[in-house]
């Protein structure tokens, strides 16, 4: 069978869980991809999604030094061909519009930059783990989202007969 993230060869509501890691930042049409993932997920099914965060600490520092475009603009930023960074609020809104309810978020890899790897002793995991839970700030370069597929609203019957 052939398919891609925009046209998956699966029946409607065929799966319980979808995991998509290190993919979203290469997609041109995120709303279309999320709609397709929602189509194949049963109501109540889980989506685990990772995305590249454009509002991370390094981007904020580079912006303050006038070395990067604004990390506060909600639109995706294509920093090289087919490599996008996303604003957390934009991703949340796209998920909502695709009929997902965000249940949990974890900002991960706070110390991915070579500077931290050089000066912070390994393992850095406990420190990174402590910063994951207060995900409302989302200052890490990657954010994981667990979202639940919600029932699509049933369209109201038309009152007009044309």
SSE run: EHEHEEHEHHE
What kind of oligomer do you see?
single chain
Task: Compute the average pLDDT.
Answer: 84
Task: Give the terminus-to-terminus CA distance.
Answer: 42 Å
Q: What percentage of residues falls in helices of 4 or more residues?
A: 25-40%
* Structural class label: alpha+beta
Number of domains: 1
Poorly predicted sequence stretches spanning 5 or more consecutive residues:
none
Strand order of the largest sheet: 1-2-6-5
Number of strands: 6
Give the gist of this structure:
This protein is 27% helix and 26% strand. It is of the alpha+beta class and 162 residues long.
Can you give a write-up of this model?
This protein has five helices and six strands; from the N terminus they run E-H-E-H-E-E-H-E-H-H-E. The radius of gyration is 18 Å and the shape is elongated. The strands form two sheets. Strands 1-2-6-5 form a four-stranded mixed sheet. It has a two-stranded antiparallel ribbon with strand order 3-4. The longest helix is centred in the first third of the chain and has 11 residues, at 30-40. Strand 1, helix 1 (30-40) and strand 2 form a beta-alpha-beta unit. It has one domain (15-149): Rossmann fold. It has 162 residues and is an alpha+beta fold. The model has no long low-confidence stretch (mean pLDDT 84). It is 27% helix and 26% strand.
């Amino acid at each position: 069978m052939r398919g891609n993230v925009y046209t998956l060869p699966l029946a409607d509501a065929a799966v319980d869980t979808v995991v998509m890691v290190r993919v979203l930042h290469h997609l041109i049409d995120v709303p279309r991809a999320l709609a397709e993932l929602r189509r194949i997920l049963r109501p109540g099914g889980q989506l685990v999604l990772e995305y590249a965060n454009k509002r991370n600490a390094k981007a904020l520092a580079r912006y303050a030094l006038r070395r990067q475009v604004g990390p506060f603009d909600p639109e995706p930023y294509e920093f090289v061909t087919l490599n996008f960074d996303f604003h957390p609020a934009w991703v949340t809104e796209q998920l909502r519009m695709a009929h997902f309810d965000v249940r949990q978020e974890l900002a991960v890899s706070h110390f991915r930059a070579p500077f931290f790897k050089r000066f912070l002793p390994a393992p850095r995991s406990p420190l990174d783990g402590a910063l994951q839970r207060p995900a409302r700030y989302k200052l890490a370069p990657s954010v994981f989202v667990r979202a639940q597929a919600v029932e699509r609203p049933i369209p109201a019957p038309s009152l007009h007969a044309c």
